[in-house]
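Write out the 3D structure for:
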Amino acid sequence: PERRLARHAARLAWSDVPATTRDRFRMLVLDYVACLLSGLRSPLCNSIASRALRTGGRAEASIVGVENRV
């Protein structure tokens, strides 16, 4: 089932997606970016990022707005 879904997704063109779905997708992406940007200055987010930097294992993951990997 996963391969079938992957093949379908790979062949899918943006124009194949219904207009209402495309509009909803755009709004969700904009909402995600707005939340991401507003959280960059949040004391809670800064605290979580600092803790991840201190206690993280192998440095392989990125945190938006943080220079180092965790």
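The chain has a mean pLDDT of 91.
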